[in-house]
Write a structure and sequence with these properties.
BirA Bifunctional Protein, domain 2, Herpes Virus-1, 3 domains, 7-stranded mixed beta sheet
């Protein structure tokens, strides 16, 4: 097992052991690629949502939020292109009987070429030491140039074939590159065919009269069909945005990598409506703003990069992903797309209703253009969780596992720990707990030694541990232990609220934007 696989395995087991994520319906052997968030996972997830919502809606005067229904009129999905075009290229291996996304097999092959590039860079760094010029090496080294050129040609050919729906060439490309089933090594492939990702269901009291509808594959259409409702009631002028957090459903061919690709997932999306001709300027603006939102978490700029799309979706005139370095490599975390007027014009055509905006400055009506920012909440959870989970060797040689979450996102802000279960310490601890619980999510723990309790709180990412000991009864002070430094200091009980708030409130994060 590689080091990365080992790290990822630890992420999955830690998530279950400490109440973050459980396989759904586990007592019945689970349901493939569906997961439940446990008590700590639900808190972390809600905090990520809050961070996004506050940054997107609360801090922007011209962005409002809605919560549209999951079930929508079936014509919505005809108008949006999902009925006809929401497909992934599917390929089966004849020997292993396993199913794969053909484009993902090719992308994974290209990722291995990039791994080779990184190995060349690392070798050169060791060889040349401080005199090493990385940029010059990347632009002049023949091997690096060869790998990058090959990568570019492969992705460009794939994008063109997918755009032209030339599935035979996708199969030819897989065969030419000698791509094998990653589990068995077999290269015996079927033809590539298209597979629609939408879940169908029925709406109605009886089978004969039921209407065929879909579980929404994205949250964006709920925003588009409500454009006029929101614009008229909010009285916003362009440019303005509509944000939403909600569930979406996709019948993925290969759902894998834990919560990275699931069949039921949550999206945080914002559609920004702008005058035609201004969209590319706003597209660049939102690329920068969204990257800043990620960087404010302090997970390291080296773990993010932009990836511009070779193949544009049918509705886009520009598109880029923000990729994050997961344990299994750089993968898409968020998409920023310039969607033109495709969606509003399509709904205007299919519904017969006007989706126009009257611009008082230009004294004319037009269909607005749209810039979209769309992030997978579950992927964001995985990015933060996997990056913050660390094993540390301490000065005394002992080890600890710590989840060094940004304090504002931590599920529990402070643990209240009476040193022993007697002598009035639990009663005093409860009084502190009851005083602080209105402001912070807390945990009260009195089982096990204080050292074990500290370790448990480190593992769930609690920023502060508050220990009540015998001296506390006399001096009304407690021992405050900080998670990352493990530094302990005596603090007056009356000062706890301000100390915890200063470290854990959202103001700290939001002020960095």
């Amino acid at each position: 097992m590689s080091k990365q696989e080992d790290i990822f395995k630890k992420v999955v087991s830690h998530a279950k052991e400490y109440g973050f994520i459980f396989p759904s319906s586990e007592v019945y052997d689970g349901l493939s690629a569906v997961y439940d968030y446990g008590q700590n996972g639900a808190e972390l997830k809600n905090n990520i949502k809050q961070y996004w919502w506050k940054a997107m809606v609360q801090l922007n005067e011209n962005i409002v939020g809605i919560d549209a229904a999951i079930l929508m009129h079936p014509t919505v999905w005809k108008a949006s292109g999902h009925v006809d075009a929401f497909n992934d290229p599917l390929i089966d291996n004849k020997d292993s009987k396993k199913r794969f996304r053909a484009d993902v097999l090719i992308e994974d092959y290209c990722a291995k070429l990039e791994d080779k590039v990184q190995k060349e860079i690392e070798k050169a760094e060791k060889r040349f030491g401080e005199t090493f010029d990385k940029n010059q090496f990347e632009t002049t080294n023949p091997r690096v140039l060869e790998y990058r050129e090959k990568q570019k040609n492969i992705l460009s050919r794939m994008a063109k074939s997918l755009e032209n729906e030339n599935l035979a060439d996708i199969k030819s490309l897989i065969e030419e590159l000698e791509i094998a089933d990653p589990d068995t090594g077999s290269k015996n492939w079927t033809d590539v065919r298209q597979f629609n990702l939408m879940f169908g269901t029925k709406l109605g009291a009886s089978a004969e009269n039921a209407t065929e509808i879909y579980l929404r594959p994205e949250t964006a259409q709920g925003i588009f069909v409500n454009f006029s409702n929101v614009q008229k009631t909010s009285r916003h002028k362009l440019p303005f945005g509509i944000a939403q957090i909600g569930k979406a459903f996709r019948n993925e061919i290969v759902a894998r990598q834990f919560i990275f690709r699931m069949r039921e997932f949550e999206q945080m999306e914002m559609q920004f409506f702008v005058p035609p001709g201004t969209e590319l300027g706003f597209y660049e603006m939102w690329k920068e703003k969204r990257m800043n939102w990620h960087l404010a978490l302090g997970l390291g700029a080296e773990n993010y990069k932009f990836h511009n799309h070779e193949k544009l979706a049918h509705y886009a005139n520009a598109a880029a992903d923000i990729e994050f370095k997961f344990p299994f490599g750089f993968k898409e975390l968020e998409g920023i797309h310039s969607r033109t007027d495709f969606d509003l014009s399509a709904h205007e055509k299919y519904s017969g209703r006007k989706f126009q905006y009257f611009d008082p400055e230009k004294n004319e009506n037009y269909v607005p253009y749209v810039v979209e920012t769309s992030i997978g909440l579950d992927r964001m959870f995985l990015a933060i969780f996997s990056h913050c989970l660390k094993d540390e060797i301490l000065e005394d040689g002992s080890e600890r596992t710590v989840l060094s979450l940004p304090p504002a996102l931590a599920p529990v802000k402070a643990a209240i720990l009476p040193l022993v279960k007697k002598d009035g310490l639990p009663e005093m601890a409860e009084k502190i707990f009851n005083d602080l619980k209105y402001d912070f999510n807390l945990i009260f723990e009195e089982k096990d030694s204080i050292g074990k309790r500290y370790r448990r709180q480190d593992a769930i990412g609690t920023p502060f541990c508050i220990t009540i000991d015998h001296d506390s009864l006399a001096d009304f002070s407690v021992t405050l232990r900080e998670r990352d430094s493990m530094k302990q200091e005596r603090v007056e009980i009356s000062k706890l609220r301000n100390i915890i708030d200063e470290k854990t409130n959202f103001r700290n994060l939001l002020s960095r934007l």
